[in-house]
Specification:
Helix content is 44%, strand content 7%. By secondary structure, the chain is an alpha/beta fold. The protein has a 4-stranded mixed beta sheet. Keywords: Signal. Residues 1-23 form the signal peptide. This is Peptidase M48 domain-containing protein.
Length: 379
Amino acid sequence: MKSPLHYAIAVLLLFNADRTASAQIPPSCRLDEEGGKAAATTIRLAMKAYEVLGKPLPFDEVIVNPTVAPPTPKSLAVYVVTDATMSTVNKKNCVFKKPAVVQGEELDPISISGGCVAAAGKMEVRCSSEAVQMFGKQGERTGLANPALLYVLAHELGHILQRRPGEYAGRVEPIELKQPQAAKLDILRESCEPGLTKAEEDADQLAVQVLVKLLPEPPYREPLFSAQGSVLWGADQLNLAANSWRKATLEREFISQHKPHKSFVPTEFPTPTPVVQANAKRFVCEVLTRKSGVVNYPGRSSTHPTLERRMQRVAEALRPLATGLPKSDAKQEYRSIAVLQEQLSDIFTFMYRETGVYLEALQSNICSRVNSDKPTEGC
């Protein structure tokens, strides 16, 4: 299957590894009650799924935006905080002028710079109000929930189960080509170190298991579509929310999206092995032999899986689930739309999976070449 589209590499930055949640309890003037309720409702659903999966979480109640420390060690505190930059808050950390976030300015210590974060050493999750709104966006209809917020929070709960803080980010990193060849080769080899993403991948896997358990049922079941179409639509919602969040965070920081090296943009699905090998060779040769410019390298996210890898896992889990569900139970008045949605979502899910497969194969070929005795052979 060939695609005329250039599948742009997106970055899902759910939180910044350099900034953990402040130990200080956020002031009440910065707490989002509606967002807190949405997050807590989602966490309670995820709690039940974890229990059914045989992985009970180490807390039994969820407290929204507490102004004092939770009463027991078995209580999870969930804070949803309004983000603000340094110039818009007063000495009490309350916002005194709008807009609260000034583009190009640094966020204050109360803000959550990248979505949601599980705190280290205590039962606590903090989320940006904007992130909860974006990942939880579902429209005006009642009784429905966006699986994107479920995925984000289930990932954070996975870190609590691991009893470690989250460090979830996917990046496209620049490589300065004016560096000596040996330095550039070290950068490429460093990205091939095994096991660096294991904790994050484990948390991702837990989140995917929660999705599989909950997506076929309310509040994630989309009644306009068939049961099969609804599950596939869940994957689309996750991808849309992730890209929207990336766009919003980049815009407010005046950061332009780095375009990856063209070897990382697949144009054919599935991609033939010779094409993968040729693209890996082209990338390594350009990095090691060119002496000016910059190459943007998604594979350098050495501690965090990329969005494409995450979407691959989601697609691999949801497609078999969707296949076993009926296609004929969409609402009759929306039947034509439902049929189109099923066809498109199935194509998109296939692309999510194949893009992840391609990038994994490409990185493997890059690593084989840079770890060989002659990495520039044939350049």
